[in-house]
Amino acid sequence: MASQPRRGGVSLPERRAAKSDSNGSIISKLSGSPIVSRGRQAASDAVLVTRKLLKSTGKAAWIAGTTFLILVVPLIIEMDREQQMNELELQQASLLGTPPQPQK
């Protein structure tokens, strides 16, 4: 009974389903192809490598920044103090009238 056509109305669900299946099958064939699968895998691998690279770059930047703050900044401050002390000594010597001593 289900296979008998109806009288009185035009209904073609078989053709509509076949048409949508043909479109779906092309998309499913393309999405299931080995080229697309390899492309997706390559993109996934690229994302993974990029994340690891960014993470390691961030760690390296953190290490470099903290090392600079701990070792280099105090050295710069100390060198600036030394230069200011030398200039102060030169000013005091010139005010007192003694000849300036040659710099080492």
From TrEMBL:
Gene Ontology CC terms: mitochondrial outer membrane
Fetch the InterPro entries from UniProt.
Tom22 (IPR005683), Tom22_pln (IPR017411)
CDD domains the UniProt entry points to: TOM22
State the UniProt keywords alphabetically: Membrane, Mitochondrion, Mitochondrion outer membrane, Protein transport, Receptor, Translocation, Transmembrane, Transmembrane helix, Transport
- What is the annotated localization of this protein? Mitochondrion outer membrane
Membrane topology type, per the record? Single-pass membrane protein
Q: Where is the composition biased (Polar residues)?
A: 20-31
Which regions span the lipid bilayer? 60-77
This protein's record includes keyword Transport: yes
Question: Disordered: where is this region?
Answer: 1-31
Q: Pfam families under this entry?
A: Tom22
Give GO BP annotations, semicolon-separated: intracellular protein transport
Similarity remark: Belongs to the Tom22 family.
Checking PANTHER family in the record gives: MITOCHONDRIAL IMPORT RECEPTOR SUBUNIT TOM9-2 (PTHR46867:SF4)
- What name goes with this protein? Mitochondrial import receptor subunit TOM9-2-like
- What is the phylogenetic placement of the source species in the record? Eukaryota, Viridiplantae, Streptophyta, Embryophyta, Tracheophyta
